[in-house]
Design brief:
The chain contains 3 helices and no strands. It is mainly α. Helix 1 runs antiparallel to helix 2.
């Protein structure tokens, strides 16, 4: 089996795809934090500590996801494909916007 070398274009594409994937993971963890916070604020007094513990775990996962995204983003931002994606994203309506 012969392995093909990674091309420059392939590396650029991988950098952008990795950053997008990390962004999606971070946004999922943000949603999990919001959900855990909501459960904590609505928890009965007897369940408050366990709900708070779950909220803290969600915060830690979100922080790790944010760190990963922060590490990958600078590399992807140097790619021309990322600039096109950024411009397209700016034209999309924001969630909740009317």
């Amino acid at each position: 089996m012969k392995l093909r070398p990674i091309t420059r274009a392939g590396r650029r594409r991988a950098d952008v795809e990795n950053a997008v994937s990390a962004y999606r993971a971070w946004r999922r963890e943000c949603a999990a934090v919001r959900a855990a916070y909501g459960r904590w604020t609505r928890a009965a007094k007897t369940d408050a500590w366990s709900a708070f513990a779950a909220y803290r775990v969600a915060l830690e996962r979100e922080e790790r996801a944010a760190d990963m995204y922060a590490r990958l983003l600078p590399r992807a931002q140097r790619r021309p494909e990322f600039e096109v994606a950024r411009q397209l994203a700016q034209r999309l309506p924001r969630v909740g916007a009317v």
